[in-house]
Design goal:
Helices cover about 30% and strands about 30% of the residues. By secondary structure, the protein is of the alpha+beta class.
Length: about 775
């Protein structure tokens, strides 16, 4: 009989233990067990955990606590089981659900009243972690009371404002795209926490989960001048800062959903396979200092996508590139991230594969986000490499009036900079940081984009196109004509990167004569040395040289050389520190004109070339400008066909430039230094930018009936073609002895014309 009673008691004990088992949102049993194991073997994790526990101890004796403190306290309780932490969580929960609203007067006073916004979103997240972590400490009655309070103050206002067909008044882009994700998916996160207490919670969770497909595929609004949520390659236009925030809010919900309801299938979102790549492509890594990122718009230079990539990893997107990125970005205490010095980052820190110290991402060194108008070009994935980032896309909501702007990282430093931003309440945010003069753009008579664009949106966005990359050559075109259309008819900026020189070629046409001004924002120390502007920070240095319309004077006073370029120091404001002034350069020409070309060279100095810098020379002829660059035993000639700048209509821009016959806008030819440049057999590399043919002495080098942008490397030996143009093109390419050719990494076989040494290829 005693054995029977003992068996029943054991079964009841097992049943009671099983019935109390909970599927947690973030601090799951698996995550807690992994963290406890990591503490024993990983010094960084151990130190971080000790800091979190120390904070939790301080919170126990603190009288006034915030909702966000539930994260530290929740992790401490789950790790130790000490009820003193759960007791404090309970106090915070009851304090917050006793309020009528979590929003401020300004938003509540709008018509209709905005009752469920970012403050509500944040509190939903923090308090749900607290409720979830302390769940087994709370009584059934307390759980019910807290859950009902979370619905009343946290979940229902968001459902009413954002989702309910009977009451909602927001849409995917009301306050920009990150608000939807933050508000709606944190309401879903909170609904998951109270699923046992509120019968409707699971229904809300399911409905919220289903919105993700529509959210990520939102295509924008022509009438409201709002862009799509995502670029086709995973980019998020609102800046790295808001990409990290907005996307992570959805991923936190998706991760919690997977932990709580593992048997329920979630919506398939192919874009998730590309989002992590976006954060890697827009990051810059140095041997010293923290990782940096492309800080266009309302971002921070040290902001990363750590939270998103960490969550993607936890959701099963386990790529070596992501493991590498997490290794680079896991340290820190970004309150919106999942870095190791935060409770959530600590709990979610995964066990990563051991990669070689020399590992670098398996990506091309350049990438164009065509839908949103961003591009990054770098000379390698090594740390302290050189990276050029360009933006020519949308202006609205966290994106600035910066069409055609660019920034440059070199030798571990951000030398050519974006001016950044300030707090939104500071008048300078609107008056300076969002405006064109805070960026590396061309101004006309002191004007840039319409000053109202950052609020109302640009009517015709800029664009980036024709990214062409070879082994030692890169090209991309920025079209900023649309955003500047009130003052400029043409605003095209071409970037040609050859070796240690980046040419910036601006093709400009105004509606009337006036003064064009070329702006250059920088970090470090900058001064003019003869023909060059030096920008130097520690051991990193670049030179910026104006070539056209003129150079700087080689000496003497500017007054004595009125025909040369003028350099003026102006004063802006420091990134995130509007109380501090920040100097920048303005380069201009004395002549007021309606049409001009700025051609400038950025020379990348290094230990390897500092005693043997590239030799840059100007040359010109009838209707063309030329630049010659000699470096590393090679000479590159760049031709700019002025007849192709839009001045001709109903006629093609045919020209003969030093014997090269073409209609191309830009032509680049590379030769061995000292070689006979009139002999096509000496061509090492040929680039045709927006042209249909290239000939010399009757010999066809490239030909098609439509215009294209293309690069041919190893021109006379083993031609490799990078082609950007329309589909269905019949291309003829000079090929003295090859009947196959590689085009865009695919081997193509064509019809060989031995008489003219041409290979006919159908693209």
């Amino acid at each position: 009989m005693k054995k029977g009673i003992l068996l029943i008691c054991c079964c009841l004990t097992v049943f009671t233990t099983y019935s109390q088992k909970r599927n947690y949102l973030l601090y799951t049993d698996d995550n807690i067990n992994r963290l406890q194991s990591q503490i024993k073997t990983n010094g960084v994790v151990k130190n971080s955990w000790e800091q979190q526990l120390k904070k939790a101890e301080e919170f126990v004796d603190k009288s006034k606590l915030k909702a966000s403190d539930c994260q530290v306290l929740g992790l401490a309780y789950r790790m130790t089981g000490d009820e003193k932490y759960a007791k404090v969580i309970k106090k915070i929960l009851f304090d917050y659900i006793s309020k009528d609203t979590w929003e401020g007067k300004e938003l509540l006073s709008r018509t209709p009243s905005w009752t469920g916004n970012l403050t509500t979103s944040h509190n939903n997240f923090f308090l749900s972690i607290g409720f979830d972590s302390a769940y087994n400490y709370l009584t059934k009655k307390e759980r019910k009371e807290i859950a009902e309070g979370l619905v009343r103050v946290g979940i229902q206002p968001i459902l009413d404002n954002w989702l309910s067909p009977e009451t909602n008044f927001h849409t995917f882009d009301t306050m920009g795209h990150n608000w939807w994700s933050a508000c709606v998916y944190m309401a879903g996160f909170s609904s998951l926490a109270i699923r046992n207490e509120i019968p409707e919670a699971k229904k809300w969770t399911s409905e919220i989960a289903q919105t993700a497909t529509e959210f990520v595929n939102y295509s924008g609004s022509v009438l409201q001048k709002k862009p799509s949520t995502f670029d086709r390659d995973g980019g998020f236009y609102e800046s790295i800062n808001y990409a990290s925030y907005g996307i992570s809010q959805y991923l936190l919900f998706r991760y919690a959903f997977e932990q709580v309801l593992p048997k329920e299938k979630q919506v398939e979102l192919p874009i998730l396979d590309k989002i992590g790549d976006f954060f890697i492509q827009t990051s810059y890594f140095s041997n010293e200092g923290k990782p940096m990122s492309v800080n266009f718009g309302d971002s921070f230079i040290y902001k990363t996508g750590n939270a998103c990539v960490m969550l993607l990893w936890q959701l099963g997107y386990k790529k070596d590139d992501y493991a590498w990125y997490i290794h680079q970005t896991y340290q820190g205490d970004d309150h919106e991230g999942l870095q190791i010095e935060t409770p959530n980052g600590l709990a979610l820190f995964p066990k990563l594969p051991n990669l070689k110290e020399s590992y670098t991402p398996n990506f091309p060194t350049s990438h164009l986000y065509k839908d949103m108008g961003w591009a990054t070009l770098r000379n390698s994935w090594d740390k302290d490499a050189t990276m050029l980032a360009i933006k020519s896309g949308f202006t609205w909501n966290h994106t600035h009036a910066d069409a055609g702007s660019y920034i440059l990282f070199h030798k571990g430093k951000n030398l050519i900079i974006d001016s950044g931003n300030s707090s939104y309440g500071n008048p300078l945010y609107t008056q300076y940081y969002c405006q064109s003069e805070a960026h590396n753009v061309v101004m006309f008579d002191g004007e840039g984009q319409n000053r109202k664009d950052p609020y109302f949106g640009v009517n015709t966005p800029g664009s980036l196109q024709n990214l062409v990359e070879g082994k030692d050559f890169k090209y991309i075109l920025a079209n900023a004509s649309g955003p500047y259309s009130q003052i400029l008819a043409r605003n095209y900026r071409n970037f040609i990167w050859v070796g240690d020189v980046i040419l910036v070629i601006d093709d400009l046409l105004a509606h009337k004569p006036g003064k064009f001004e070329w702006l250059l924002h920088y970090n470090g120390i900058s001064k003019r040395n003869g023909l060059d502007i030096s920008i130097k920070e520690d051991n990193a240095e670049i030179l910026v040289r104006s070539l056209y319309p003129e150079t700087f004077p080689t000496g003497g006073l500017p007054h004595d050389f009125p025909e040369q370029m003028r350099l003026e120091e102006k004063q802006g404001y420091e990134d995130h520190h509007p109380e501090n002034r920040q100097p920048y350069w303005s380069v201009s020409h004395f002549e007021e004109t309606q049409r001009t070309k700025f051609v400038s060279a950025i020379i990348l100095k290094s230990e390897e070339n500092k005693e043997d810098l590239p030799i840059i020379k100007k040359f010109a002829g009838k209707n063309f400008l030329g630049v010659s660059i000699t470096q590393n035993g090679e000479t590159t000639e760049v031709y700019f066909n002025l007849l192709a700048d839009g001045r001709l209509k109903h006629r093609n821009s045919v020209i003969n430039m030093n014997g090269w016959e073409t209609d191309a806008y830009l032509t680049v030819l590379k030769f061995k230094e000292g070689a006979d440049k009139t002999n096509i057999r000496n061509i090492k590399e040929l680039f045709v930018g927006h042209g249909s043919y290239m000939r010399r002495n009757g010999k066809v080098l490239m030909h098609a009936l439509s215009k294209y942008t293309a690069l041919i490397e190893d021109f006379n030996t083993n031609p490799n073609v990078v082609f950007e143009g329309q589909k269905h093109v019949n291309m003829k390419i000079y090929s003295p002895n090859k009947k196959t050719i590689k085009i865009n990494n695919q081997t193509k076989k064509g019809i060989y014309d031995s008489r003219h040494q041409l290979l006919n290829i159908r693209l």
